[in-house]
Amino acid sequence: MAREVTQEAFAAAWADGALVVDVREADEYAAGHVPGALLMPLRSVPTRCGELPAGQAVFVICARGNRSRTATDWMNSFGLDARSVAGGTGAWARAGRPVVAGAHEDAA
Q1: Which of 62, 80, 82, 85 is catalytic?
Q2: For 43-73, what is each residue's pLDDT tens digit?
Q3: Annotation says 62 is catalytic
Q4: What residue spans define the domains of the chain?
Q5: pTM for this structure?
Q6: What CATH number does the domain located at 4-94 have?
Q7: In this protein, which residues make up the domain named Rhodanese (predicted)?
Q8: 44 secondary structure, DSSP code
Q9: C-beta of residue 71 within 8 angstroms of C-beta of residue 60
């Protein structure tokens, strides 16, 4: 079962430089994402988990929290310390937190 964190806990971790992985599709990401988030669409997560550092918390975000829970389960099965962000990018933006638009080169 995916470990989930609140928006408040995620905001504190993000402010401290946490690793954030956005599992939405590229067009959703380009429309607005958490600054610094790495784009890793959900379908690519099983083959890309090896790109993420072991021993470091990974905060996984999507639009509302559904895809991030699935991705978190996969990441945890690979031995990563992954945590799903409750409410996703939508809740982040509604809280008035920073969102940036535009494409981002992912690690693929």
Answers
A1: 62
A2: 999 999 999 999 999 999 999 999 999 999 9
A3: yes
A4: 4-94
A5: 0.94
A6: 3.40.250.10
A7: 16-101
A8: G
A9: yes
